[in-house]
Amino acid sequence: MTTTMIRIRPADPGSAADAAALAAALLRNRACMRPFEPDRAETYYTPEAQAARLADGGRRWFAVDGERIVGSATLSGIVLGPFRSGSLGYWVDGEYAGRGVATGMTEEVCRAAREELGLHRIEACTLLDNHASQRVLAKCGFTRIGTAANYLHIAGAWREHHLFQRILHDEAPPAG
Asked: What distance in Å separates the CA atoms of residue 92 and residue 102, rounded to the nearest whole number?
């Protein structure tokens, strides 16, 4: 999928180049992401730490401008069986905010979740005041399903989050 000049592609869990590019992107965006992220150890921003994250079993997509990673979406906590669900998280490089990158990544994750993984739903959450992310989720067909107190430890404190979901289809899960 392509959004203007930005290309959205799956991450390669075994790629040292992807790990290094992701570490560089996270380091470059550390200050602008700080209000929305957990406190991170210095080692988090290394290619080695990102290589381990890429291999953790989640599915990731990158928004890239040339070879530069300018956003990432992660589908984690994937559960099959009768639940068939996963949790979405994403971020966009501060220089690329407001250009539809998060919307493009979210739509690609939803497409892959349905067509490749056979998921029924995707959930996502936002800080209460993260209106930009809430607009992305609304544009992509997510509905708010509640608010959770003390949901995630972000920027040094437990924070309330709005919870969202998108139902991808109503077909029964495969028998088995």
From this structure: 6
